[in-house]
Amino acid sequence: MEPQELSKTKRKARMHQLQAVGEALLALPVERLRWLALPRDLAQALAEARRLSGHFEAYRRQMQYVGRLLQPYELEPLQALVASLCPGGAVDAQCQREAERLAAEFLADESVVGELLSRFPEFDVPYWRQMRRAALKGLAAEPQDLLPRRRLVAALRHAIEATLVLTLPERSAVETDHDEETDDE
């Protein structure tokens, strides 16, 4: 046994942790999974696990396969990424702050439209100008009524989330036995 090789108990514990990460990925809403640039085989395995959720044994085996696909990745960064994707996580907070910043800039100066156009190519200028006018009109008529501003922030947040793409952490340097076997063939 080589010194860096893990014991069977530790390998098994790591696989259970990876399966738990797979379960957490599966628990995420589908639109949040789209934010991740997942390898195709992993995305297909998660879709299949979602389909098999009513069949206990098939689901259990599929989650083992998902854990196997996650094996080349470092565990801690993967867990942190999944935690940040959960509703109320770091990504949610970051999107909300960015949307509020853009809304404040947009309400203060309409020339921000250029920045928004460069950032969001599908940006519909007349729609956003109408949103801005409605927010300004609502704030002028009733400064306590924040509903028009909230609508603008929500629309900007939706645009930010539509363009959001996150990547999985780097693969670890340690290759698995299965990967080495397929390289030899």
Structure description:
The chain has 185 residues and is an all-alpha fold. The protein has 10 helices and 2 strands; from the N terminus they run ααβαααααααβα. α1 crosses α4, α6 (90-108) crosses α9 (147-163) and α8 packs antiparallel against α9 (147-163). The longest helix is centred in the N-terminal third of the chain and has 20 residues, at 8-27. The model is unreliable at 174-185 (pLDDT under 50).
Helix content: over 70%
Largest sheet, described in full?
A: 2 strands, parallel
DSSP helical segment count: 10
Q: What is the terminal separation in angstroms?
A: 24 Å
Structural class: mainly alpha
How is the secondary structure organized here?
Blueprint: H1 8-27, H2 30-33, E1 36-37, H3 40-51, H4 56-70, H5 75-85, H6 90-108, H7 113-119, H8 125-141, H9 147-163, E2 166-167, H10 177-184
Parallel strand pairs: 1-2
Helix pairs in contact: 1-4, 1-5, 3-4, 6-9, 8-9
